[in-house]
Fold:
Amino acid sequence: MKQLINITVNGNEYEVAVKATMTLLDLLRDELKLTGTKKGCELGDCGACTVIMDGLAVNSCLVLAVEAAGKKVETIEGLADGAKLHPIQRAFIEKGAIQCGYCTPGMIMRTKNIFDQNPNPTKQEIQAELSGNLCRCTGYTKIIEAVETARDYLNGVEPPVLEFMPQKSAIDLSVVGRRLPKIDSPDKATGRAVYTDDISLPNMIYGKLLLSNVAHAKIISIDTSKAKALPGVKVVLTGADVPDIRWGTSPPRYDETILAKDKVRFVGDVVAAVAAIDEETCYRALELIKVEYEELPAVFDPMEAMADGAPRLFDHKYENNINTHVDHHFGDIDKGFAEADHIREHRFVGNRTYQNPMEPHCSIAEWDRNGRVTLHTSTQVVHYVHHQISHILGVPLGDIRVIMTNCGGGFGAKAATTTIEVMSIFLSRIAGCAVKMRFSREEMYLFGRGRHKQYIDLKIGVKKDGTITAVKQKAVLEGGAYSSFGIVSTYYAGSMLTTLYKFPNYKYDGFRVNTNLPPCGAFRGHGCPHPRFAFESLLTMIADDLGMDSIDIRMKNAMTPEYRTCNDLDIHSCEFSACMEEVRKKSRWDEKKGKLPPGRGIGIGCGGFVSGAGYPIYRSKFPHSSATIKVVEDGTRAILFIGDADIGQGSDTVLSMAACEAMGISYDRISVVSADSDLTPIGFGAYSSRVTLMGGNASKMAGEEIKKQVLATAAEMMKVDADRLDAKENKIFMKDDPSISIPWEEAGFGHFSKKGPLLGKGHYSPPEGLGGTYKGAAVGTSPAYSFSATVCEVEVDMETGKVKVLNFWDAHDCGTAVNPMLVEGQAEGAVLMGMSEVLFENEVFDKKGKIVNADLHNYLIATTADMPEIHSAIVDSYEPNGPYGAKEVGEGATLPILGAIANAVADAIGTRVFELPITPQRVLEAIQKKNLTP
Amino acid sequence: MYLPDFNFHQPDTVQKALDLLEENPDAALMAGGTDLLVEMKKGLRLHGNIVSLAKIPEMKLITQDEKNLYIGACSTHSEVIASSLVGEIAPALVEATTKIGSEQVRNTGTIGGNICTAASCCDTAPILLAMHAFVEIANAGNKRMLPLSEFFTFNKKTILGKGDLVIRFIIPKPESGTGACYEKFGLREAGSISVVSVAVSVKISDGIISDACIVIGAVAPTPKISEQATNMLKGKNVQELAEGMPLLEEVGDAAVRDSIPIGDIRGGAQYRRDVLKVMTKRAIVRAIGNTEIGN
Structure:
């Protein structure tokens, strides 16, 4: 029964009938259509739904609407004064504090409330007070900076001006290389940005999935009759109702069914789907579906799963549950170790971590009466979703439209097609109306696709002077029930060890093993962070053995430009040594190393990544990125249409900047439409750190095509040869006398008037024939590679084992930083996420294979209170294959962190932890073990 | 995720709340809702009726008389922290309360809810126990008071029976020479559940510990007073309890002997024992230090 309540929201009085069970969050979002307040975890752990109620910040997901009766509520929508932004919003935009934007409304409202109570908080107070608002993108550094800036604005104090020197490669550029605010940040700062769950279509209903509650079982029967009879239920589907086809991520390993056919393979496997008038009815219907299982023995440990006689997940493939086996040998491993003066080997164990983007996955499907389906979805990869849906439905791409809305972070969790994308389409087709499906936080963990847990046996041989002669790695990846990206993850785990240090002899054995757990996939750094953690740890151990400095041994072996690795990867630009020199200097390494008191430690780690995979996920001749630009009729604005996806990392901004530079217009004259398969040309999306380089090249090419046409028209107007003209900063001018010029828009207008639409198009594919010819040679190829180095300083409580990270000094070779502020944002975010993974994160399962920490209460991620000081630097570099010399930073910046922390902790405690996460318990046990050893 | 249907009641007096409890035997009491709503959303609890206590003014009072400090059970954590009375009389309770959840949680969660949820890792119980707090419980027709030390029976279990309602907490004012503190060990700097917690109160007369209480949290089914450690402390010279002194080690070991920790995702049983010893030692040293401030 509903009751009538009165509530004041942003000064407006509302009279609303609500059910007792409705939360304030749902009242705001569903009834009042104030969708700026976000739903992140629904359990009071993330702070995304923070609003101010009677002067106090609250999690609106844990306040009943009936309890808010008579109260005054402030939300993000009420903060700005009409069109005039609040100083907090301004500061968040200016300082680059917004990436995916999903935490932003809650973060800003919490900030407002901090200032309500204390107009002049210190940085430490801000860090403590904001700790209930989680962010997964920014590393918090720029958020804290923005809050301090807002505090200064509000107190009438001029915030300190940042000194900024452009990189050498950007000195002559007018847009690229500048610290410009993100193009989408004003919308995200005001709650206007629309995410999939904010969309409500007319006559839309909801869908939910029935997930297996057993880890491994035959399905004997499914009885849906009671669910179908429940009032409000529109559709109930089981495996019998959907096509019997296999789908997945990598074509050689399509092994997922649309709905379970005869068997379930993990707790969370999808058994049935329901559509009903609201989510609550869906949940009630799910409870009424009776599934009879015959439980089968399950296996959760990859070593046990590989053993002869272990339960098999697939009867007819993946013998011994080995889903992928890689056997690579480059050079001569025996000769390499024979040449070594010193050899060391050790086992390292990674952790099973989950991306936890702040926005839960959400999809809305709707079929029109011509039989064409439109899917709104929170994805990183519009094209791969498009392709996969086409495969599943057996219809051409033209019958499907995929629209990416604003995406609240991905990190790999949204890098492939999801079960709700698929099922919303099936449910909607039968229901005849739009169907919205979303994951709860728990369902996100159950869908999985997080980082594989890896068991790594690593062996390195070196000469007396530290020169590496041979590297041997065996990696066992715990894969979960299905393949997902796993085949690629397994290759990456091996192939990317070769890009940082030169060594001629390398052997890699990789095994990806199926277990009855949620499938693992691609998580920032895809397959590489754990091997890199092992390598950086072992290299420091070897340096210590030799009495060599940890940075010196790295410099000795460091990659140089224009080098072909032993596994046939072609390195072009490389300023790896400059990165190490930078962090050595900035961290005052030489003054600290070996000289810190017990419990304090310093360590180095290095990393790097591909700037986009050299080959697509499925065989295709399509350009990897493409762009079109349309100049508005009067020449005053260009619209960039780009297929690649801005998941918060800032690609809309960066690609716009590349296009502006190419056209010769300023950044305030461009708008962008991205990732809508009807409007934008194909782009493979945001994975493998590919967008800056590939989307950037496509955007630049489209911009150049525009410029060529504009210059031709201008030449006619100015009665000079076009090759004597150039365009920059909204002017078209004579190269030999820039004082002779006409406004860019006049030429643009002139072009349209005489020749019709002013359009440009661009596309990019990596150079043909990248990499070697052996099996698996494609994985690891890229047009360009990033490099980075990080020094970490920690303090360890020697009695409890608790690690406090004090500082990171990180330096990045990302080529030309198209937007240094965004590069820093990526680096800081990667640093903090990496730290969080190393210190806190691990998925834990009970004996029956059910995850026990599928929330943000028991699966901890770092808060503002945990953040160290992060001192990021960008070194001078120019990548010939990149747009204006640019390459990636988003994933490469994660890779040094694991080893850097491990090495710093080892330096602090005098012994080492070989398994992630480096928990206080593991640290204390290592200290205790060392103390027992005479 | 959704909340299963319930009838919602929002009485404005204790008596009305008690009446509602009598009329609706399956009713759950809700203070801030930060635990209850989470458990209901997760499907761990189902109630046909919810009786909210948020609108009962007398349950939010924080007062004092000559002997005691009184904290209404529905005082939010933020109200406890902001109260100058609590700050003056029980600063260690303020310290413990600031370590709960996030500001958003502290703005809605209450001290009564924290105690009645009765998690062994709860942050307010150890210090309330160390300060010899009492709990006042109302039932239809009567009110009773009992020491908080008799309140917890097991993890998430209390002596509360049908129709019982915790009204307020009564904290005897510390005598002069008393100091207290709360040490929490969590895995993250904020918003984390205690892996181990220790609260200590000591009274010092002429350099001797004349009274003490050591409470250990998250290492047994309930927060509990470590009798062995407490007894070992009494009558000792504070100089024997300075950092690094052997007696401190022994008291730490005694606290460990009184613990019966389990291993879970936050830490193994032996690890909890190790940390318990460390936290006990640190808490004692700090509590002694806090007496000087009090004096």
